[in-house]
Amino acid sequence: MIAPAGSVDRIASALLANGLILRGGFNFTLGDVPPPGQSGAPAKSVLLVGQAGAAPWPHFLRWQEKQSRIIANPLDTWSRDVIGAVAETFGARAVSPSDKPYLPFQQWAMLAEGLKPSPLGILMHPRYGLWHAYRGALLFEQQLPIEAAEAPIHLCDSCVEKPCLKSCPVDAYSAQGFAYQSCLAHVRGANGGPCRTGGCLDRNACPYGTAYRYPAEVQAFHMAAFADL
Question: Would you list the DSSP string of 99-166?
């Protein structure tokens, strides 16, 4: 069991070695129903682990090159390996957004960083825009010295033009939500080349956080995973 004093900084340093960062956290309250921690007892705190921009990409590629076989969902597997090793070192339980039954990662992220969803459903970050992700979380069976997040400015509120809702050729995103089947058919179809090679046109149209935009190869990787190509 780790000692709270100084542990958060040491966890952040361990994650940074693989391009990952802490994305905030919080202590569960009496009204919450937290998932179990490492021993099976209810967790008392959670730290979100993720990325800003494509910082983990070179680390992931080096790991992938060393694998002796093709791995399904390799980025998820790499994330579990890296975050799991940190969890073991610091006496935590590592969990992933793709674990079943699904854990409320988006709600946790909103609590941890005070963010709100963009029109695309991706949480809007005041610095990273839409170019960030949550790759896992660390559950602890003791409270940690975590300061409550202050709600940042929600950039979407001041964005009048909303180019993120005007760039998709099949209007996949609208006030009615995400038209999954229309998006999937387009990406897989004859006219979906720009989306397959350069990523979602709506996401790329967002004017915020462009310094953190994923390179084309990273966006193509995620699009191929989405469309099962």
Answer: -SSPP-HHHHHHHHH--EE-TTSSEEBTTTBT-EEEEEEEEESS----PPPPPPP-HHHH-SS-GGGT
Tally the domains of the chain. Answer: 2
Structure confidence at residue 6 as a pLDDT band (50, 70, 90): low
pTM over cut 0.85: yes
Last residue of a domain, one of 124, 153, 182: 153
Pull the structure tokens for residue 112.
């941890």
Kindly state whether residue 1 falls inside one of the protein's structural domains: no
Report which DSSP code applies to 49: E
* DSSP per-residue codes, 202-227: HHHH--SSGGGPPPHHHHHHHHHHHH
Task: Note the pLDDT of residue 149.
Answer: 84
pLDDT of residue 148: 79
Nearest to 80 by CA among 92, 95, 62, 102: 95
Tokens representing residue 48 in the block:
């979100």
Q: What is the pLDDT of residues 185-204, one digit of tens each?
A: 999 999 999 999 999 999 99
Phi/psi at 95 (nearest 5 deg)? -130, 160
- Is 164 found in the same domain as 145? no
Last residue of a domain, one of 91, 118, 153: 153
